[in-house]
Amino acid sequence: MIRWMLVIFPALILISWFTPLLHKLGFGELPGDLRFKLFDREWFIPLTTTIVLSLVASLVSKLI
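The line above is the sequence of DUF2905 domain-containing protein; the predicted structure tokens follow.
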């Protein structure tokens, strides 16, 4: 369990650092990314962005 925490927390930190850069590149606004308002709150579900970034990570891991 500690191993997973040692992987997940740095990953979340890296994601939070790269979020503005990814937003400038257009990620988060792809067709299929859901953005809606419910209970006076704005919700964002990045389905397409998640799939694209997963494919990129998969390709990078196969090249290494």
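Note on the example: The chain has a mean pLDDT of 84. Strands lie at 33-38, 41-46.
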